[in-house]
């Protein structure tokens, strides 16, 4: 069941809903009503802020209290959610609004199927943030739930209270992007037995048919004949053969082209360089980059920006067997460069290298790859911030800015030239891992850069930690697959379409 989404301008006190979400800031003397909550504050017996204070509420960001409306609103329940300190003379941070909306939707009960959002929405951007946060926060992966313990059903209807110019269009964008992010989450959460490479390629083909994208899939025979040594090498140890999917979107008025490349390892055992058990149980998420690229292309097809976009999903399953590649094997990659495989658990960069070389043949103005590439990313930046490396400082800065504008946490990282020597091979053009462990995220980026032509604008996003939340839900982020980087890619396409420097 899909959730209906609408924008309304009526007073929140008179809305036909099961629950009403209002925002509160943390003030020096306790909670203070945020924009959108003043009518409810005035109508509530004794004031809603005073009641919240008596309950120990502070207005801290994402703090949620559920209260009976006590006749103040036609909705029987008020969900008061914290927005943090009030902005000093300006509008609230859109991401704070989105996180608050997400926290409120996570707190609703099954009986609260129709939810109205009276959060700060004085601009179209804030209305979009409220809608985005609510749709992402209400996400649940229900495919395998039966009977007792089943996840709560998604909301039937969401209403965003806003009279801002352009709010309706902004909320429509939120719906397109959030649905695409939630598709990514579904794919990442799917058990690997039910999402082998052929399955993921099939989902991409279905998305393409539904949304008018062009699609081409190379199977294991075509990959071998085409010289895709990295994808073939990684996939040869599995009974489930690899795939390379190409998706494309074109606009008749486009003057620029962007290419995306996503790592699609549907399960990563490490191959013969076997992972320890504790590092393997969440490796169904190792296709998060390919899923993010697919989700972004879905959103682009709906939003129809004036740009051309092409995407490559490099899909394989990395398994140990008698046919698996061995440490010290040498692969001939697409384009002819040779790679000595010193560690079969550094497989993502092998499939990505093939796809990156192929993607550059499309003449893109900008190539962006997304991969759950290294555990070193998690060591360096934690589980909520992805790293951004690039061919030049300007590209890196603009991609990081796009992530910030999209509400995703990213941090610019260097590609130190001195790390290239550590990838020297005694027998091939390059080795797939460095001889020392330090700077592993950066050396992986340096490896990928070897497959980027001189003068090609390129960025690499390592989303190893942010793509899968192993902890408790927070804001609009659930446990499990997060959809990390999807919104950043969509924003990059829109920036390029609008003529902004990406």
Summarize the structure.
The protein is of the alpha/beta class. Helix content is 33%, strand content 22%.
Write the layout of secondary structure elements.
Layout: E1 4-8, E2 19-27, E3 30-33, H1 38-43, H2 48-54, E4 64-68, E5 77-85, H3 94-107, E6 114-118, H4 124-137, E7 157-161, H5 167-189, H6 197-211, E8 214-218, H7 220-226, H8 229-235, E9 243-249, E10 257-268, H9 288-303, E11 308-318, E12 329-332, E13 338-341, H10 348-360, E14 366-371, H11 375-381, E15 386-390, H12 393-406, E16 410-412, E17 430-431, H13 440-449, E18 458-462, E19 468-469, E20 480-481, H14 486-497
Parallel strand pairs: 1-7, 2-5, 2-6, 6-7, 10-11, 10-14, 13-17, 14-18, 15-16
Antiparallel strand pairs: 2-3, 4-5, 8-9, 9-11, 12-13, 15-18, 19-20
Helix pairs in contact: 3-4, 4-5, 5-9, 6-9, 8-10, 9-14, 12-14
Give an overview of the whole structure.
There is one protein chain. 33% of the residues lie in helices and 22% in strands. Strands 8-9-11-10-14-18-15-16 form an eight-stranded mixed sheet, sandwiched between helices. It is of the alpha/beta class. The mean pLDDT is 96. Strand 12 and strand 13 form a beta hairpin. The chain has helices at 38-43, 48-54, 94-107, 124-137, 167-189, 197-211, 220-226, 229-235, 288-303, 348-360, 375-381, 393-406, 440-449, 486-497; strands at 4-8, 19-27, 30-33, 64-68, 77-85, 114-118, 157-161, 214-218, 243-249, 257-268, 308-318, 329-332, 338-341, 366-371, 386-390, 410-412, 430-431, 458-462, 468-469, 480-481. The chain is built from 14 helices and 20 strands.
């Amino acid at each position: 069941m899909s959730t209906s989404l609408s924008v309304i301008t009526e007073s929140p006190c008179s809305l036909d809903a099961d629950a009403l979400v209002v925002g509160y800031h943390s003030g020096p003397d306790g909670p203070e009503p945020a924009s959108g909550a003043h009518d409810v504050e005035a109508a509530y017996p004794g004031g809603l802020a005073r009641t919240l204070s008596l309950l120990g509420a502070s207005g801290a960001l994402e703090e949620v209290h559920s209260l009976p409306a006590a006749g103040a609103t036609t909705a029987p329940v008020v969900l008061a959610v914290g927005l943090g300190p009030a902005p000093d003379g300006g509008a609230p941070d859109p991401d704070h609004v989105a996180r608050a909306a997400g926290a409120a939707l996570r707190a609703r009960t099954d009986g609260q199927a129709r939810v109205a959002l009276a959060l700060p929405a004085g601009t179209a951007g804030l209305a979009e943030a409220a809608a985005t946060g609510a749709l992402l926060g209400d996400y649940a992966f229900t495919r395998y739930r039966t009977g007792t313990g089943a996840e709560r059903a998604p909301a039937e209807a969401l209403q965003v209270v806003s009279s801002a110019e352009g709010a309706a269009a902004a909320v429509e964008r939120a719906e397109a992007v959030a649905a695409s992010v939630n598709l990514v989450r579904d794919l990442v959460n799917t058990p690997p037995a039910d999402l082998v490479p052929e399955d993921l390629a099939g989902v991409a083909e279905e998305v393409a048919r539904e949304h008018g994208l062009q699609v081409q899939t190379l199977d294991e025979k075509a990959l071998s004949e085409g010289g895709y040594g990295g994808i073939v090498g990684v996939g040869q140890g599995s009974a489930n053969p690899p795939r390379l999917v190409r998706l494309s979107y074109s606009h008749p008025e486009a003057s620029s082209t962007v290419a995306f490349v996503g790592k699609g390892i549907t399960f990563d055992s490490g191959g013969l360089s076997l992972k320890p058990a504790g590092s393997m149980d969440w490796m169904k998420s190792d296709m998060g980059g390919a899923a993010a690229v697919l989700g972004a292309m879905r959103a682009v097809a709906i939003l129809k920006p004036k740009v051309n976009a092409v995407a490559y999903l490099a899909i394989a399953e990395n398994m140990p067997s008698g046919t698996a590649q061995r440490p010290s094997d040498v692969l001939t990659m697409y384009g002819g460069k040779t790679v000595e495989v010193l560690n079969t658990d550094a497989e993502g960069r092998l499939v990505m290298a093939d796809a990156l070389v192929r993607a550059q043949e499309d003449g893109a103005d900008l190539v962006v790859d997304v991969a759950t590439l290294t555990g070193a990313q998690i060591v360096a930046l934690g589980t909520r911030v992805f790293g951004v490396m690039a061919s030049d400082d300007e590209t890196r800065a603009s991609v990081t800015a796009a992530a910030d504008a999209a509400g995703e946490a990213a941090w610019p990282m260097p590609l130190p030239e001195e790390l290239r020597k550590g990838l020297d091979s005694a027998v091939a053009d390059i080795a797939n891992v460095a001889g020392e462990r330090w700077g592993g995220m950066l050396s992986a980026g340096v490896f990928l850069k070897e497959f980027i032509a001189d003068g090609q604008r390129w960025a690499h996003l390592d989303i190893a930690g942010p793509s899968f939340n192993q902890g408790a839900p927070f804001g609009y982020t659930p446990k499990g697959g997060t959809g990390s980087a999807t919104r950043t890619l969509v924003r990059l396409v829109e920036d390029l379409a609008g003529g902004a420097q990406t």
